[in-house]
Amino acid sequence: MNALVQLSGVSKSYGDAVALHPTDLDFPRGRTSALIGPSGCGKSTLLRLIIRLLDPDAGTIRFDGAPVTAANIAELRRRIGYVIQDGGLFPHLTARKNILLMAAYLKWPMEKMQSRLAELCALTRFPKLALDRFPLELSGGQRQRISLMRALMLSPELLLLDEPLGALDPLVRAALQKDLKEIFTRLNQTAILVTHDLAEAAYLGDEIVLMSEGRVVQRGTLDDLRTKPAGSFVSDFITAQRSVALT
Amino acid sequence: MGLIGPIVIGLLAHAVNAEPILIGSKKFTESYVLAEIAKRAIENTGVSTEHRQGMGGTIILWQALRGEQIALYPEYTGTISEEILKAPPSISAGEMREQLAKFGVGMTGELGFNNTYALVMRRATAEEKAIRTIGDLRNHPELKFGLTHEFLDRRDGWQPLAEKYQLPTQNIIGIDHGLGYEALRNRSIDVKDAYSTDAKIGENDLVVLEDDLQYFPRYKAVFLYRLNLPPGVVTVLRRMEGTLDEKRMIQLNAEAERTKNYARAADLYFHDDGSPRGTSFGEPFGHKLRRWTLRHLQLAGISLLLSILIGIPLGIAASRGGVIGQVILGFTGAIQTIPSLALLALLVPLPFFGISVRTAIAALFLYGLLPIVRNTATGLQDIAQPVRESAIALGLEPSTRLWKIYLPMASRSILGGIKTSAVINIGTATLAALIGAGGLGEPILSGLNLNDHVTILQGAIPAAVLALLVQWGFDLLDRLLIPKGLRL
């Protein structure tokens, strides 16, 4: 079975507001899927359902073939990395301690932690000397690199990224997009990326999942979406974004 | 926090000692002096005693005696019949003893003098308005009355007195006994209640208004004591019967107020020549200051430790919101609205508490809760959602999230709450002296009672210095305990 994550009939509402209609979707191993769509389309909800920050109202989510339950989620979370827009770093811990937190909690030997940390610094091109700074002493781009290292520390099978570059200025953002692409390729990483930027989705994603109003509207490459749009929403969305980003 | 624990435990151990005979006294000079005399007499027989000074009014002392928290205290026959037994004034001494025995309490014979209530005025004002008797007051509604709270509430106090004499009742304020003399002197009030053996009457050139309708009952001084006291101690007390007439008592009271030293006045009782004997009486000031300060720190320290141990978990529970959170914050907030004196008075009649250090610590603990609970709850609630979700998504167990992430992040707020509690406790602990729990409130209370500013300052200045030191101490602690990443 090639899918690492499988959703079947998964839905979520907040009171009367439907965030996600019953959805079937699977995410193949070794590939980057980019979830895209306007605000409120349900893309972040979907990500948060996978890592169980939200409980689904109905349906089943399978990870590596096994249904995700309240009982096994703590263990599964250690096989999943999660990066959010502003990093979510712990301000009272240095960059180093943020990254090593889980490994230390799991009582990794010091040597193993140090060598993994060195690997990650090289991978994310983060200056080792800055590891002893606190999050408030780092730039926005550096913070996202730390957040990425923290997510990758335990070599997770799945990496979830929720608008990871959304708060960065364009130059930093471009540099990080390039680095992320390299990292995903080198690690053959299974990743799900939430973004509202079509160019980013196309650049980083092996495929694009376009969502609107709690439903998946179309799935495929940017070319598929452009040449065979599943409806007027798809072409409108692409046209609107192309005018700024794809020219 | 690691430092505070051993210190507090040390202080606690210091407080629990051999068990001396506990002598209580009410919050006025004569009661202090009589208690000191009893203390001296009993100690002369080799039995150790402790004098819980100025424990407030009749009810508190009577409850303490009934509850065996004190072994004896000086009382007046009029108060026993009117206030304690609620009996008619005609009751005989034998009947009184019989009824007291039901509570396990005995009564000595009369010590001699009659210290009845009286109304007093400045001599000049009384002469100018030609007031000689209580009845004469009827025609002077312009006079301002400053009466002690106990007198205002007593069955044989102001209400029936005003009724019997049909006195005007519009210009009345309640005022502390010692402060009342000051108020008389500076003309804030014109008439006050006093005890007929009060040394202040002569000192301040006041006149006692004649009780022309013979309203006030007789207040002959006696000792009330637990019937289970050792017979030797009772014998010592009874040896004092008939040894103190009015003149002698006024003299002792005056000596106490002049020298600001009750032990010295008591000493005079044992030396008939009445000549003062050097300065070897009582405790040296350095000793007293050390005793007060240690006790004060003990009261404030133990109660603060309890507030921290209980308050932080309550704050954590409250931070989760919901009904439980509201109940916790509502309850701790409600405690704060009870005046501290009232809270002490409410705790005293409860079993286990009574007149004791425990009660003072419990009251201070309750006061210390709110700042800690509220700051813990707000500190935790202020942690941003993305940080919380990151901690969950990493796969940390709930308890690890709390200890490693949430509590350190809330540490500044929590420490702020603890600091507020500590400073409040240092201040409020001065009230502990009201229920005989000691501390720096002791000199403040006796100073108020003696109307002696120097004695008040002996307690007030160290208390203020302590509060400042605590403030500084916590500023240092902030640097040690708040993670560096949060102080940038």
Can you describe this structure?
- Helices cover 39% and strands 26% of the residues of chain A.
- With 247 residues, chain A is an alpha/beta fold.
- In chain A, strands 6-7-8-3-9-10 form a 6-stranded mixed beta sheet, sandwiched between helices. In chain A, strands 2-1-4-5 form a 4-stranded antiparallel beta sheet, with helices on one face.
- In chain A, strand 1 (3-14) and strand 2 form a beta hairpin.
- Chain A is globular.
- The relative contact order of chain A is 0.17.
- Chain B has 488 residues and is α/β, with parallel strands linked by helices.
- Chain B has 3 domains: 18-114 and 219-270, 3-Layer(aba) Sandwich (D-Maltodextrin-Binding Protein, domain 2), CATH 3.40.190; 117-208, Osmoprotection protein (prox), domain 2 (D-Maltodextrin-Binding Protein, domain 2), CATH 3.40.190; 285-486, MetI-like fold (Orthogonal Bundle).
- In chain B, 57% of the residues lie in helices and 9% in strands.
- Chain B is built from 22 helices and 10 strands.
- In chain B, the strands form 3 sheets. In chain B, strands 7-6-8-5-9 form a 5-stranded mixed beta sheet. A 3-stranded antiparallel beta sheet of chain B has the order 3-10-4. Chain B has a two-stranded parallel ribbon with strand order 1-2.
- Chain B is elongated, with a radius of gyration of 27 Å.
- Mean pLDDT of chain B is 85; it is low at 1-17 and 273-281.
- At the A-B interface, helix 2, strand 6 and helix 3 of A face helix 18 and helix 19 of B.
